[in-house]
Amino acid sequence: MNINDMEIVLSLMQKAGYEEIVDVPEKAEVIFINTCAIRDNAEQKVWQRLNYFWFLKRHWKSNVATGRSESLHPPKVVVLGCMAERLKDKILDADKMVDVVCGPDAYRDLPRLLEEVDYGQKGINTLLSLEETYADISPVRISKNSVSAFVSIMRGCNNMCSFCIVPFTRGRERSRPVDSIVREVGELWDQGVKEVMLLGQNVNSYNDASGVEKEVQPGNNWELSEGFSSKCKVKSVGLRFADLLDRLSNEYPEMRFRYTSPHPKDFPDELLYLMRDRYNICKMIHLPAQSGSSAVLERMRRRYTREAYMELVHKIRKIIPDVGITSDFICGFCGETEEDHKETINLIKSVGYDMAYMFAYSMREKTHAHRNYVDDVPENIKQRRLTEMIEAFRETTGQFYDIQIGTTQLVLVEGPNKRSPDTELIGKSDRGHRVIFNIEPVPDRENNFTRRNPTAGDFVEVQVLRSSRASLYGQALGITRLSSFYKTAKDEAVAS
Questions:
Q1: Helix (H) or strand (E) holding 53
Q2: Which stretches make up the MTTase N-terminal domain (predicted)?
Q3: Positive or negative torsion for Cα 40, 45, 47, 48
Q4: Residue 198 and residue 260: Cα distance in Å, rounded?
Q5: What's residue 428's pLDDT?
Q6: pLDDT at 242
Q7: What does the alpha-carbon distance between residue 86 and residue 103 come to, in Å, rounded to a whole number?
């Protein structure tokens, strides 16, 4: 999300006349630092960077004289994003470190805020919006010639989980109109992008009600995953996430689609069957659990039980048998007992995940937990529980890589493998696994079977020969198109 936000900022700045983007902060006259407030560790990294930028600004003359800096003026330092909203007063008071503080809904105001600095003022705008989605902005892509890109389809969050700061730093949910998303994806296709990651704090809660003229009753026709509940009031039901995926996958049949980060409550059957039936919607679902204990989940205000989560996992795997499932986990949340922790370990082993993000809990100000709970799990116990979660994950994840051995996977080539750039290429399979294979000429099935080396952006059939817990290794068989690969696989299945 922060990468996509930065691409929006770059577009707005270029329109305001800031044309050149430099490669290092020592050359810059405006330095943006985009921030995250989810965990304390992220904020500490930001303060470290700000100290260095303060040095570039405070000692600009001597830095230029010694060749350390090349900017023509002392750099202006701009803090963007969630931390900007959360700690605006502290940041501005930090010994003149920062010139502008701009929240995630105020990026359009950046040119004016920078002008205020020229007149000796501090620039600040951290107002949250109920409408801002930047739907009319064409982001300036940071990675040129990339084969994949991020597209933000919604902003904000309504769930108010007790541990989470996001609703307070990014505001309430609002979705971009479908047409604006389709337009941006079309622009990316014209630029050679082959895979799009759809983004949102609750991406599958997407609800484009821009074309709805009359309101319906809150929650009416809003189908949740079975066993899940929500206190979010939906005033107008419009086009939902499945509708968006349906249109995108139909209009761009040679483009892959992924999405993150979803909430388990918004996986109606319609969405799961669509994922099963469309070859260009990747068979990978991020399903944040956070905890395996129903008691902890209740304190987290997740609105589901362990049993409901497990039932959803079983349904997903029944409908999409070859799906990869990933997750998020927090250990050491307020009041978590050893028994609660064991239930989380058991859930990790019972479900079996392809990948998981795991963290020790750090309390954030403004959250429900900060107002109502006590952060009562000692840090050493949090770290021990985190280690045990990671070990449990490692015990199970290898099987999901090993079962790929002997199969043929369609891999979107991202570029040379950094460890062996002259001899190996790397890419991702449909399920999101990294696949590494040797650079060698193979038949191009879409060009009279002429032989050539695969390059970034090619879809390549790769036979998997071996695996590790983090990667697959194989041999390239041929270059093909996305639709051709799955049509061939379907024809062979029918013939057998």
A1: helix 40-58
A2: 1-119
A3: positive
A4: 6
A5: 97
A6: 95
A7: 9
User: What is the C-alpha to C-alpha distance for residues 172 and 131, in angstroms, rounded to an integer?
Assistant: 9
CB burial of residue 311 (10 Å; 0-12, 13-18, 19+):
middle
CATH 2.40.50.140 correct for 405-495: yes
Q: Which two tokens stand for residue 51?
A: 């100290």
Q: Are 320 and 283 in contact (CB under 8 A)?
A: yes
Per-10-residue mean pLDDT, the chain, length 496: 90 91 92 82 85 91 91 91 75 77 92 90 84 88 84 93 89 93 96 96 92 49 80 79 97 97 94 97 97 98 96 97 96 98 98 95 92 97 98 92 96 96 97 97 94 97 94 97 88 64
- Greatest CA separation for the chain: 75
Count the residues in the chain. Answer: 496
Closest residue by Cα to residue 3 from 137, 156, 151? 151
Task: Residue 149: name the closest of 235, 257, 76 by CA.
Answer: 257
**Tokens of residue 280, six digits:** 């260009």
Q: Torsion-angle region of residue 221: left (phi > 0), alpha (psi -120 to 50) or beta?
A: left
pTM: 0.89
- 360 strand-pairing partners: 331
DSSP state string for 399-448: HHHHTTTT-EEEEEEEEE-TTSTTTEEEEE-TTS-EEEEE---EEETTTT
Say which amino acid occupies 7.
Answer: E
Q: Domains of the chain: which residue ranges?
A: 1-125, 148-204+239-402, 405-495
CATH number of 148-204+239-402: 3.80.30.20
The dihedral of CA 200, 205, 206, 211: what is its sign?
Answer: negative
